[in-house]
Here is the input.
Amino acid sequence: MNAQLDPALRRERLLYLLLTLVCLALLGGALYFQYVRHEDPCPLCILTRYALVLIAIFGLIGAISRHRTGIQVARALAALSAIGGMAASGYLIYVQANPLVSCGYDVVEAFVDALPTSRLLPQVFQVQGMCQTMYPPILGLTLPMWSLAAFIVIFLSLALHRPPRAVSLR
Here is the structure.
C-alpha cells in the first residue's frame, strides 16, 4: 500500500530540493570563477564551498525525508552550515579590507588541503590562491560579499520559514 504524502509535506520537501539546487548552482558559480575567470580560491573560499556542499546535503536530506523530525534536523544542520559560511565569508571580507591581516594561509591551508575531499576532488576543494588577492568586483561587490549575502539569505530563509503543522504521512 502506497502512503500518499500530505500536500504540506510535499511542498516542504520541494523547498529543500530548491535549497539544494541553489547551493549546487552557487558552487557551480564558484567553479566558473575559478576555471573560466582564473580567480584561484583561497583557504576561506574553500571553507565557503564546504558550507555550500553541507547545506546542499542537508537540503537533500530534507527533500527526501518523510517525517517532520527529519526535516527539522536537516533545517538545523543547514542553518548551522550557513552560519559557518557567513563566518568564513565575513572573515574573508575583513582580511581583504585589512591587507596586513592574514587569513592564516599556512594554518588554514594545511587544514583544508589535508581534508580527504581535497585529495578526492582537488579541482574543487584544493587551495590555490591567497585571501589577500583582490579580484574585480561584480556590480560593486566582491565575491566574498556576494557569498556573505547568499549565506545570509539562506540562513534567513531557513530561520524564518514556518513549516506547516501537519507535516506527516497520512
Observations:
- The helical segments are 7-35, 43-64, 68-97, 105-114, 116-120, 122-125, 143-160.
